[in-house]
Amino acid sequence: MNAFVVNGPTPLEGEVRISGAKNSALKAMAASLLVPAKVTLDRVPRITDVTLMAQVLQHLGARVEFEQNRLTIDASGDLLDETPYELVKKMRASIQVLGPLLARLGRARLAMPGGDAIGSRPIDLHLQGLERMGAKFTSQHGYVEGVADRLKGVRVLLEFPSVGATENLLMAGVLAEGTTTIENAAREPEIQDLVAFLVGAGARITGAGTPTITVEGVDQLGEVRHEIIPDRIEAGTYGIAAVATQGDVSLIDLRPEHLELPFIKLEDAGAEVIRSDGEVRIRMSRRPSTLDLVTLPYPGFPTDLQPPMMVLLSQAEGPSILTENVFEARFMFVDELNRMGARIRVEGHHAVIRGVERLSGAPVRAPDIRAGAALVLGGLCAEGRTEVYDPGHVGRGYEDFAGKLRSLGADVSVEER
Ligand code: UD1
Description:
The protein is an alpha/beta fold. The protein has two domains: 2-19 and 230-416, Enolpyruvate transferase domain (UDP-n-acetylglucosamine1-carboxyvinyl-transferase, Chain); 22-227, Alpha-beta prism (UDP-n-acetylglucosamine1-carboxyvinyl-transferase, Chain). Helices cover 31% and strands 27% of the residues. Strands 22-23-1-24 form a four-stranded mixed beta sheet. It has a four-stranded mixed beta sheet with strand order 2-15-17-16. A four-stranded mixed beta sheet has the order 4-5-3-14, covered by helices on one side. Residues 115-119 have low confidence and may be disordered. The structure holds uridine-diphosphate-N-acetylglucosamine. Uridine-diphosphate-N-acetylglucosamine is lined by residues 23, 26, 93, 121-126, 160, 162-165, 186, 303-304, 326-327. Uridine-diphosphate-N-acetylglucosamine (UD1) binds at residues 23, 26, 93, 121-126, 160, 162-165, 186, 303-304, 326-327.
């Protein structure tokens, strides 16, 4: 079994270049199914989830090539309508092909998703919205099957600004008849990037980045080239790591405006955050101050940065309270962190964190992408040796995680145990 092996503590120092955003690349890939012509995506991160999505597209009949960080997709041929359990169970984001397949083929059959172990993640909002657009769903044997003649533009009010539901609906609306309006839409930068991609291909969409997105259906999309935005979660992870290890790290090639609140929180914790165009330097020279933090949809504090923030606060000078509002089971890794000497108590969706002076290295297990990265970060802060098992989770979302950390001075490797 493989593990990240980390010998700490090490203050991270140096520069790290930020990769393209996982959550943007995956959606542009799914949206390529709407395009019966060549799609070129640049700055695509080389991570396992991208490979999995490429397999989904290939299974459906698209041609996919991946060289360096450039991905080309050609979905101009005949497409299949079924995405099997073997692929969907490995990655929940596979459900983003539902809207595009319904729009393009008028039918789709999809295994119900599995994916991260971070709580029950239903797809009711996706299905309700698509039903309003005229799709009919049945579900049996673990599969959901949808049919629609031509989808119709309607007004959909989302009960919660779900990222995935917003994306599925706007992708479905692109080829629908008439105008689709999504109210209480998610505002995440990845949605704005998906819209930029689709507009480049000929879609007519306004309002991305606001709670109301309007999509005017068109008959067909065409060839497009698009560069994926920088990964704000990757950037935030290294920024938090800089502060937690009391280091000095420059994040290169990012969009600082996508991390406004996380950077303010790092300043509140005592860090110096020097922002310039496309670059941010983060310095810290003492134990962090305590913070209260609440995760919320964008532009609130991102749930994906909650686990690394928990590691940072586990060493703060006093107690902090962290409230998780987006995913119910995202505190599952707390027991692992407590094995490293942290003092964290979970009460429902609140975590009470009593800072300790120093974590201590221990063998732990990564339950999902972000918690896995956070445990490695714990190892960088801890005295002695930490082994983080199931490192594959981290490789799903972080391009060359160990290599980038080593370039910042960390003693970390992936070893066969
Ligand atoms: C995306 C991101 C994930 C991030 C999350 C929130 C990708 C591939 N993943 O996930 O990294 O943590 O946004 O920023 O982009 N929900 C429902 N019914 C639905 C859909 C969602 O109840 O039909 C609930 C979920 O269970 C969860 C909450 O809404 O509690 C947020 O989910 P959502 O915004 O849809 O996240 P994802 O798109 O799955």
